[in-house]
């Protein structure tokens, strides 16, 4: 079995690591947070000090960090993957970043021998841990095909949507629809409750009809919506660059903000 490296052993990265371990892969990982790294070690992940150490001993590396700046640091920073990478190493970016950023990274890697795959995932932490994520893959056909046996250990559905950047574009649109459904779910249930209808009975009834959606069924409205602002800022920035007006998405960003303020949920720094 090949060795798979994971950079970022947080909520999603840990779930992916657990799924890979169950499938029999040798899993090696890096995380800047000592407590998170230790949790990975206890789960069976072989810890390495720096991303460069993974580049020297792994066949495929999955990057699952939070933001574009962190992806850049993991690839090109001191102790990063690219300076230590042998020709042919495949790096899969599972983080959610702007499609334009993935294209820029691909251009920077064009003459290095390192192959970049665009590999954002959907369905959340529980799906990562039980191996049922949905992946929107982008990149060269041969590279995506080579990664598929590894991806199948933590994804039940892998859709190769197009060239590099296509995966992040698909994830961006998926996120927009997710936050729209979640916000509509909360506003609808709040209104129904104010009008004397039992919230849980209505939730069960809505899931049987045309209002059914993933956020409603999985009770995503009861979680923290940690990445909502980031997701919507990516969407609106890319729309500006494409000279496309998204009036609903603009209103949705403010609706998410209002919802988080009303519920006392953490706002972005």
Provide an overview of this structure.
By secondary structure, the protein is an alpha/beta fold. The chain folds into 2 domains: 3-162, NAD(P)-binding Rossmann-like Domain (Rossmann fold), CATH 3.40.50.720; 169-263, N-(1-d-carboxylethyl)-l-norvaline Dehydrogenase, domain 2. It is built from 13 helices and 9 strands. Helix 9 crosses helix 12. The N and C termini lie far apart (42 Å). The mean pLDDT is 95.
Name the descriptors.
269 residues, alpha/beta, Rossmann fold, N-(1-d-carboxylethyl)-l-norvaline Dehydrogenase, domain 2, 2 domains, six-stranded parallel sheet, three-stranded mixed sheet, 13 helices, 9 strands, globular
CATH architecture of the largest domain: 3-Layer(aba) Sandwich
User: Main beta sheet: strand number and arrangement?
Assistant: 6 strands, parallel
Count of individual beta strands: 9
Structural class: alpha/beta
Whole-number tally of structural domains:
2
Low-confidence stretches: none
What shape does the CA trace take? globular
Which oligomeric form is depicted?
A: single chain
Residues in β-strands, percent: 5-15%
Percent of residues in helices: 40-55%
Instruction: Return Rg in Å.
Output: 19 Å
Number of helices: 13
Quick synopsis:
By secondary structure, this protein is of the alpha/beta class. Helices cover 52% and strands 15% of the residues. The strands form two sheets. It has a six-stranded parallel sheet, with helices on both faces. A three-stranded mixed sheet has the order 7-8-9.
């Amino acid at each position: 079995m090949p060795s798979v490296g994971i950079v970022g052993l947080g909520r999603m990265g840990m779930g992916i690591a657990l799924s890979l371990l169950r499938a029999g892969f040798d899993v090696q990982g890096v995380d800047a947070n000592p407590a998170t790294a230790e949790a990975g070690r206890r789960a069976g992940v072989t810890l390495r000090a720096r991303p460069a150490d993974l580049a020297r001993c792994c066949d495929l590396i999955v990057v699952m960090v939070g933001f574009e700046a962190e992806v850049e640091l993991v690839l090109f920073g001191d102790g990063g993957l690219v300076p230590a990478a042998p020709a042919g190493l495949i790096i899969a970016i599972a983080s959610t970043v702007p499609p334009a950023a993935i294209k820029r990274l691909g251009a920077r890697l064009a003459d290095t021998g390192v192959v970049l795959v665009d590999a954002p995932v959907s369905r959340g932490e529980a799906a990562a841990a039980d191996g049922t994520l949905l992946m929107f893959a982008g990149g060269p056909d041969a590279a995506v095909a080579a990664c598929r046996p590894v991806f199948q250990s933590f994804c039940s559905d892998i859709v190769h949507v197009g060239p590099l950047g296509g995966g992040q574009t698909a994830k961006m649109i998926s996120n927009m629809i997710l936050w729209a459904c979640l916000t509509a779910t909360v506003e609808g249930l709040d209104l129904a409750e104010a009008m004397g209808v039992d919230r849980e009975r209505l939730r069960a009834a809505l899931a049987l009809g045309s209002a059914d959606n993933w956020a409603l069924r999985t009770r995503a409205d009861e979680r923290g919506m940690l990445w909502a602002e980031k997701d919507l800022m990516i969407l609106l920035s890319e729309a500006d660059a494409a000279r496309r007006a998204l009036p609903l998405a603009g209103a949705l960003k403010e609706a998410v903000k209002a919802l988080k303020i009303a519920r006392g949920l953490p706002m972005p720094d």
